[in-house]
Q: What sequence folds into this?
């Protein structure tokens, strides 16, 4: 995890970079937006921690130009302001979160992790998944095979979605009934899991979801 600290208070930047390194991050530091641009040409960063009161170029212009170029690096603002109008402006204008000075380092680390978790969820939901000739569109909740839309019930899609999320893991009937159907007790002696997996195999291909004898099912 690469973080770039853009902060002209060199003591704060030094202490913060050391603390983030202790927490397992890779943290570089610069004192200006211009130096940040140079750093970002040489290295890919997952997050910027950016003081809004930097000299020279406006942080707002800097962030706006990043977004216009398609750079979706996460951004946390450091600020001495704590007014609601400013906060709304920052969050609407490219920032993912903010921390008001003086701040607790542990709180900042918690905010870093929260922003990164949110980003991972969005990326996962927005990205289509291709498994051989089967494409799963998470945003539209659609499935295509050889570019043709496959008609699926909501339960069939939810079942497929669960296998995709647990890809590479063996899943037994109990877990599927609890997590997909949400009612293990009523269906524990039924063959509904087997039947719906048969439906998926028929619509996709027979070995799409494999049976592990005595253990459950797996999407490899």
A:
């Amino acid at each position: 995890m690469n973080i770039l600290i853009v902060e002209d208070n060199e003591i704060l930047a030094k202490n913060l970079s050391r603390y983030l390194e202790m927490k397992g991050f890779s943290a570089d530091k610069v004192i200006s937006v211009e130096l940040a641009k140079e750093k970002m040409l040489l290295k890919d960063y997952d997050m910027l921690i950016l003081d809004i009161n930097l000299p020279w170029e406006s942080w707002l212009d800097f962030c706006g130009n990043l977004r216009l170029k398609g750079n979706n690096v996460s951004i946390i603002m450091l600020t001495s302001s704590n007014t609601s109008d400013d906060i709304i402006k920052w969050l609407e204008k490219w920032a993912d979160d903010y921390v008001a000075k003086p701040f607790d380092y542990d709180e900042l680390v918690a905010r870093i992790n929260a922003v990164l978790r949110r980003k991972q969820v969005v990326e996962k939901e927005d990205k289509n998944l291709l498994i051989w000739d089967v494409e799963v569109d998470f945003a539209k909740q659609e499935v295509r095979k050889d570019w043709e839309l496959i008609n699926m019930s909501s339960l069939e899609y939810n079942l497929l979605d669960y296998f995709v999320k647990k890809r590479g893991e063996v899943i037994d009937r109990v877990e599927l009934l609890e997590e997909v159907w949400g009612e293990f007790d009523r269906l524990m002696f039924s063959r509904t899991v087997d039947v719906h997996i048969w439906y998926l195999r028929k619509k996709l291909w027979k070995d799409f979801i494999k049976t592990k004898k005595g253990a459950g099912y797996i999407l490899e």
Notes: The chain has a mean pLDDT of 83. The domain at 2-126 is CATH 3.40.50.2300 (Rossmann fold). The two ends are 28 Å apart (CA to CA). The chain has two domains: 2-126, 129-218.
